Amino acid sequence: MTAILEVRNVTMRFGGLVANEHVSMSVQDGEIFAVIGPNGAGKTTLFNAITGIYEATEGEILFEGKEIRREWSRRTSVRAYAVGIATALVAVFAINATALWQGAIVEKYVYAQPFPWREAMATLVTTMRASGFWTTWGIGLIGFVLGRLGYGAIWRAQRRTPDLVARAGIARTFQNIRLFAEMNLVENVLVGMDQHCRCGYWACLLRPPRFWREQATMHTRAFEFLKFVELADAAGSLARSLPYGHQRRLEIARALATEPKLILLDEPAAGMNPAESADLMRLIRRIRDRGITVVLIEHDMKVVMGISDRIVVLQHGKKIAEGTPEEIRTNPVCIAAYLGTEVVN
Amino acid sequence: MQRTVAAAEFLAASALSQADAVGAFARDGLLSSQEVFTQQLVTGLSNGMIIALIAIGYTMVYGIIELINFAHGDLCMLGAYFALTVVGALGVDHWVGAGGLMGLVMVLVGTAAFCGSLNWSINRLAYRPLRKASKLSLLVSAIGASFILVNLGLFWGGLPMDVFANGTSSAAPKAFPALVSAAPAAQIGDVIYSRTDLLVLCVTLPLMVALTYLVRFTKLGKAMRAVAQNPTGASLMGIDVERVIGATFFIGGSLGGFATVVYSLYNQTVSFQMGYRMGMDAFIAAVLGGIGNLPGAVLGGILIGVIRSMSDGYLEARWTNTVVFGILILILVFRPSGLLGAKLREKV
Amino acid sequence: MAISSKRITINLMLIAVVAIIPVVEKYVPLGWHISDPMTDVFVYAILGLGLNILTGFTGLLNLGVAAFAAIGAYVFAISTCEIYPFQLGFWSALGLTMAAGALAGFALGAPTLRVRGDYLAIVTLGFGEIVKDVLVNMDSITKGTQGINPLPPPTLFGTELSGNGQYWLFMGIVLVVVAGARRLERSRIGRGWISIREDELASRAMGIRPDHAKMLAFATCASLAALAGALTASRLSSSGEPGNYDFQISILALCIVIVGGLGSVRGVLLGALVMVGMNSIVLVKLTELIGGSDAAPASALADAHGVQWALLFIKTWAQNVLMSPTNWKFLVFGLALVLMMIFRPEGMLPARGTKEDAPDGDDGASGATAVANKELRP
Amino acid sequence: MIRRTASIVAALTGAAFLLAAAPLNHAQDTPSKTLKIVSSLPQTGSANAQTTSIVNGIKMAIEERGAVVDGFKIEFEAMDDASPQKGNWDGQIESANAKRAIADPAVVGYIGTYNSGAAKISMPLLNKAGVVMVSPGNTAAGLTKPGLGEPNEPAVYRPSGKVSYFRVVPADDIQGAVACEFCREDLKAKKVFILHDRELYGKGIADVFKKTAESTGVQVVGFEGIDAKASNYRSLVTKIRAAAPDAVFFGGTTQTNAAQVLKDLRAGGCKVPFVSPDGTFEKAFIEAAGKDSVTKDQGGVYITFGGVPSEMLTGIGAQFVKNYQKKYGEIPEAYAVYGYEAGCVLLDAIDRAETKDRAAIIAAVAATKNFNGALGTWSFDENGDTSIRTMSINTIEDGAFKFVRTAGGAAKAK
What we know:
heterotetramer; B: ABC transporter involved in vitamin B12 uptake, BtuC; two-stranded antiparallel ribbon; 13 helices; D: Rossmann fold; Rossmann fold; 2 domains; 12 helices; 40% helix; globular
């Protein structure tokens, strides 16, 4: 088994607040891995760092041995320059628009007579040459710098975005359920499957045969996912009309629909009764049996101890223990953390 | 010094590609280029402070119920009509000396009270029933309220009083009597600091200080901040949320009232359509500074005033709006939540 | 989702009723001239449908949609008018217009991807003002406030359409746009948009690329708005002046979308009918019915005192302003907006999920709007 | 079910198309004893004051004839071509107004528009339908005069080939030139600063002013378009002050903030003569400007106006002012007399027309020669323009307009 996810020395700081401090862990392919800890231990923050919602202040997160982030590749660089040049051109043309228009159109066009296109084009060039140094090169330079910087600013803000992470193969659910409330169950799942759709904008608008074929396949598969979480019966109802426990399962179905290699479940058993959590445990095992690695945050110790292969314990943003359920159960540090007693060295 | 001036001129000239025109202004004119610059700065600051005062009302309401209060500018317009009516009915413009000052204060306070109550009533009638509806419904309601206020202004302008030209043309702009003369309060070279400029300073600064105190240190201010952060939580803590919202509308409105009197005295013209621009400038100012943020609104307002002034003075006046909005968009591209706005971080 | 045959029936009936209005009008002389205002309704419906994609589906507040209409009108005008050398035909100019609109949408959308909620609202508002200013100021190109005319009327297979022909053509275009909007809504593109409106973060975490989706929404919105602008220009045979595309029109479009029901295609159509109809039909009829009063007699206020003075004061005032119905238009319009919002905050035909669907007394708002609301928060 | 409905719908729609295609008997030919005149002016929003007084003027013209002309009853309807959403003229509404007027067989005259932009929309429609249009307010030169506007103007407004549009108000080309002559000759201005409101009217006049200034050796030290909605123009005034002109010309109207420009000039310490066109020749301008900024020692204000001002009118004009004052309790706004004149000339033409159909009335209006009206004695030329070329220069004294002199008998446009 290889490590599918490696968290190395991750520190998350929000201003003065330290949510995670030098957390390291490594999740093996195909295991069920639990992150536990008291409230405020930084578990969800860690999930957010993994899924790209926050950017880690320090440290790195490797998925399948690589960091998921847009690299400033040659292509990005070319694009940035292209955007800069485009902005520059637009700026220069905008500044000189009146002169260009005057020279090429107004002076050349005699009402109701054929227009000398070739001459007009030639005039464009001469007018550009004739316009002042600053109005062409100065404005062009400003435009270029702004365009280039603007592209850079937007790129920098999106180096590691959740959609990139999701497309790389990490799906997640949320602690406070975040379904698309106004959509029905099938549609919710279909959103998850979006990255596997091949039809683009025009196909969706014009609807050629391949659109219908794809739609049929997608719907079938969406139903499969719903069946997998035992929600197929309610497929047509709105997400927000579902009871709480079902909403949790729908969220899992939606996450599975992205066909991830790794799924992060944030407190999947929260608010469930024992019967429901037992169902959930079965569900999680079935997910693992599909070949998907599972990382979960959970407070319900029965669930955690029942299904996890390995467990990490966080407290005050620091990792205080790691091991199999057996080891954790007997680890005095963990017990102290959960019971709130002072740790005696 | 000479060199700086020359450099500044060169920069302005090259940026405009109108080197000869600008040069001609500076050489033939009565004013040196430094004087022109200082004068523009003074104008910009005065205009900016008025905008800032209106923007505070905007931003306060936004901060507490996240409503872009489209009716705010038109509320200020009605305030100006109210002030004009008071001045006309009591003949305040004929009061002299200490009486004149008293009259001025009275008009200021009266208008503030009027605008405050009006804003409170608008909240009560048009916004409160929509407290639980979507923000966009609220926005449309505010737009509707703004239309109604504009129409009330049109009606008001038809009052058969001297100050409204006997109401014969209700839509025409009205002259606002010069309670404070535009004569120079100070003059350095050819730079005029008029008494109306001084008035702007004397009204806006204390108000801003008072407001800061109110929001920071009073019980009401704390309640307002609490409601802004988390209405449900605040109501659980025993804060009467509706009362706090009402108070915010009142305070925001009365600041608009002060602002509109200052505006009217500064420009000496009021018209039923002036609310649009007042509201627009204030909105831009609030957003530029980071909407919901009080110091941001002040900073934004002053920036807008100065940018407008400089653009009028050194570029062409017809491009001023484009310059203002262009700068706004640029700033938002690099700082998506305004200059002083808190960085957005969604709770997950 | 199976669409019930009943609904199809109703839709077809509605279309038929709208289609025969001009004919009925001609043969039943009620003195109602509604086919002409109805053509305006169609144009505004297109504008509304465009804005609905951006604001209704994707949840991005746009206060500058009129700018796209202005771009549309002017691109159409410049590419067709005989005083310019280009002189394209109606349909090719329409295509160019929509492309130009889409490009403008990209140009506005791309740099402002990071700008959210009300900040985006002011960026779009500013864009609207900039476009208007540029059109006025670059008068050597756009003829400033003169307007560009004449423009070719709509044609179909080589014949110029006027009156009823235009009516049916515009109605046809609206139907095409409605079909397009529906198709997009019910495909992965529309799901992507709606998921962004519902919860941008969650949709990101599901692998939706909001940047792409938003750009598409911007471009679609802009190109539909441009289409609306071009159609108006062609109908009036003039681009009008830039002032005809100012903030107020963006507001009108927004009101159409919200009053109709945010995110609901049918709602937008109804919204356009109500908002434009109110202006072109109801207010005009009202003016005709009431007529106006004239005379405000010489003011005798100076001589009067006490109660008499007060009465005279009010009388003069009333005669000055209150008796003229045109003076009430803003008030009627504004009051209608406020009342509609108070009594139907979720719009007349809310998208989906009306109150009945809400499990345990939802907060009263339509969920779509309530969530859009949350999403618009900065 | 669906299929049946669909077929019904198809049948209905088909029938509708057939009906529409079938030739219709227009009720137009049936004689009626009532003739109708309509006006289309922007009565919602900023131009309200002017347009209301125009409508008053038209009504007075009709009332003076007892609402009967040559045995025909005259009805009048004032249409509004502005919408509340815009607060200004709206192309769609103007077009709808024109179409409504065309559709009503009783309508024989269309008085409008106020805005030249709006006229461009309704002119071709009305021309095609053969409804005479008399404008009390359009001043854009291109609407009637060949060579001054776009190359396709004014032919483009006359699809029928005939002139059916007339205006009783002198066009921009005369006024701008007169204002410039006045600056040069009377004010002895060597340097002028030109402002305009970027609207069709204001910029049109300012352009002519500039052209005239340049050709007559007056230096133009600045040419700026203002933002008519700005709250004040102090920074612009500083710029003007730095340019040190001998006079400031503002091409614009009271609605586009002329009074604010004037006030800020004075407040900013720029005390040179202020010259503006007839868009500011209304009481509202004096009211808005306030009494302090218009006085002579502040530099003075000079306003050009087509024809002589109300108070200076003699004969019919003087009578009109008196009657108006009696009826409405105020001195008429500048444009009221144009409304009155438009009404009078139209009624006169209806009177003269042999048959009362639209074509005959167009011919009758076009044949107007030496019409003795409120503005003096004048005729329509072959383009439909008034022959009045006399402008008056007015100043403001003691809160009222005061006539200075007449100018520009034969204006040189170029």
